[in-house]
Amino acid sequence: MLQGILPVLPTPFSTTGGIDPDAMDRIVEFALASGVDGVVFPGFASEVDELRADERASLLRRVVERVDGRVPVVAGASAPSAEEAIAHAREALAAGVRFTMIQAPKSVGVDAAAVAAFYGAIAAAVPEIQIVLQNAPAPRGSDLKPDVILAIVKDNPAITYVKEETLPAGPAITAILKDRPAHLKGVIGGGGARYIIDEYRRGACGAMPAVEIADVHVALDRAFRSGDIAKARDLYMRTLPLLVIQANFRMAFTKYVLTRRGILSNRVARAKLPPMDDMDLSEIDAWLKLASPLLTNDAAAFAGAAE
Predict the structure, then answer these.
(1) Which parts of the sequence bind pyruvate (predicted)?
(2) Is residue 21 part of a domain?
(3) Where does 165-228 have alpha helices with state H?
(4) Residue among 67, 77, 76 at smallest CA distance from 37
(5) Which CATH number is 193's domain given?
(6) In a domain, 299, yes or no
(7) Higher pLDDT, 101 or 298
(8) What is the pLDDT of residues 244-277, one digit of tens each?
């Protein structure tokens, strides 16, 4: 079962703009050392739209090889058409990955029959996979309503999970879980873990945040599951300012924090992202310093961070 913290891994690039496989190894090892329950690649947070087909395929194989069966790998397979999604799913299967996360393209629309046909074509073409139906908010996603998702899922046993990240996600999670078919194993939260406590209280089986504070998210998950809700809320409260900043700068924030934690040596990105100025960076450093006791992999790394 997919559950717990399953971060979406970023794509590391060299200073010349190419992919950096060695840096990807370090990201995977950092995630595993943080105690994650699975990893996701590629996803939106991986700058997937900026990757060539060969880069995407080679990095997925690299992730799978590095994970070496220690936790599940979920491969992103979203695409503008069912045919392309099928190709991505087959590529994932060839790499040894059976969980594929797929968002229906906006061109399919929001009609339940049309979206169901999209997922049905994928399930028929690649019957060995399990599909995580990704429901992202506009403008990136289609903002499918819970009744539409349930109509899609009920006749497609290949869809075993839903990643629900529309806003607000909480009521949608409640509605989906209330009437889910038996083959739907769970709903996973999105939104960068900015709403993780609400999602967990409503029955979400896990979350897919970015990876830069995976150790804190794992500690939060474990506290919640053990019944220590007060500790989970404390961890959430102490890291939420970072997640709020991350919402603005996305992968640029993730890569900056990973450089500060010694995982990456640069923060090169291909995606068009809002630039971070010196004030932004000093603010991130200040919040990282406050959170440093929680960063169990390198708690001493921020001793000299900005005040």
Answers:
(1) 208
(2) yes
(3) 169-178, 196-201, 214-225
(4) 67
(5) 3.20.20.70
(6) no
(7) 101
(8) 999 999 999 999 999 999 999 999 999 999 999 9
